Amino acid sequence: GEDVEQSLFLSVREGDSSVINCTYTDSSSTYLYWYKQEPGAGLQLLTYIFSNMDMKQDQRLTVLLNKKDKHLSLRIADTQTGDSAIYFCAESREGYQKVTFGTGTKLQVIP
Amino acid sequence: GAVVSQHPSRVICKSGTSVKIECRSLDFQATTMFWYRQFPKQSLMLMATSNEGSKATYEQGVEKDKFLINHASLTLSTLTVTSAHPEDSSFYICSAHPEGRLSYEQYFGPGTRLTVT
Predict the structure, then answer these.
(1) A104 touches chain B (CB under 8 A)
(2) Which residue, of A40, B9, B86, B96, has the greatest Cβ tally within 10 A?
(3) Distance between CA atoms of A35 and A2, rounded to whole angstroms?
């Protein structure tokens, strides 16, 4: 079955860049997502990338996809304290609405 | 647009009782809704896929008689935890897929914290 892995924790200083990494196993993945979850809240879709793309940038967020290595990363530029949250990588396949989530990376931003 | 609500946001119940959680799509119709469960410091685990007007599809290991799902309309799905026990305490999150939209579009509710005492 599908498997999505992330490192559990990342700590950065305010103003620095954060890079959160994710690996997945399903070569049929069509869509890859990054979600943000603040404490006690639901999930907020931050961005997504199609598997035929290498990179997507949206303001402070840059997503890089290495399809050969099945590696996805999320870079947050100029990280702010409001970025402190858990970030989930996720994947799904075209025609299938089921989304498989990674283990989540807790980002701590130090003022 | 694309707002999904859940009710209640937090519930505490006694062991052996049943609890119903509602998931509503507020400004769109959802042919498919999903129910997830999240344990502390863990990822979301898909419990079941709920299709309007038909029986839910449960993931392996999820007891369909314990977690009753009803998707009676295009804007409402309910999850009932029957005969709840302390091990059912968890954060339950629903998501909804807008009718006619591409498969990757899915919107999440804010979650319901269930505590069984």
Answers:
(1) yes
(2) B96
(3) 18
Residue A71 has pLDDT above 90, yes or no: yes
Residues of B in contact with A101 (CB under 8 A): 43-44
Identity of the residue in A40, A99, A103 whose CB atom sits nearest the CB atom of B106: A99
Which parts of chain B register pLDDT below 70?
1, 103
Q: How far apart are CA B47 and CA A50, in angstroms?
A: 25
pLDDT at A2: 65
Decide if A98 and B44 are in contact by the 8 Å CB cutoff. Answer: no
- Strand-pair partners of B35: B48, B94
What residues are paired with B49 via a beta bridge? B34, B57
Q: Give Cβ neighbours of residue A62 (< 8 Å, ≥ 6 apart).
A: A55, A56, A74, A75, A77
Q: How many CB pairs under 8 A join A and B?
A: 55
Cis? peptide before A111, omega within 30° of 0? no
Q: CA distances (Å), B87 to each of A41, B33, B117, in order?
A: 21, 24, 10
Per the prediction, chain A carries an average pLDDT of 91
d(CA B92, CA B75): 18
Q: Tell me how far apart the alpha carbons of residues B22 and B93 are, in angstroms, rounded to a whole number.
A: 10
Q: Is residue A1 scored above 60 in pLDDT?
A: no
Distance CA B103, CA A30 (A): 10
DSSP state of B86: G
Give the phi and the psi of residue B23 in degrees, each rounded to 5.
Answer: -130, 120
Alpha-carbon distance B88 to B66, whole Å? 10
